[in-house]
Input
Amino acid sequence: MVKCSFCGKEIKPGTGLMYVKTNGSVLYFCSSKCFKNALKLKRKPIDVKWTEKHRKLALRAKSSKDSKSSNKSSKKSKGKR
Ligand SMILES: [Zn+2]
Output
């Protein structure tokens, strides 16, 4: 199954649209919403909240922060009186 080039959602066969750029690269979009955001509004998937790419990046940023903070919290829990 093809995934949407913008939001990362799986596109069911027979739905969505395929866009071929003049340089030959092919983009798949699950809906006109993704199509407009990518080509008309020229937004990056990472900057748009409802895309999978944004979520993955946010998760990564969170997990890297969590690993740091978890060290601190473990120290705190040891210092219980
Ligand atoms: Zn999409």
Remarks:
- The pocket of zinc ion is lined by residues 4, 6-7, 9, 29-31, 34 (CB under 6 Å).
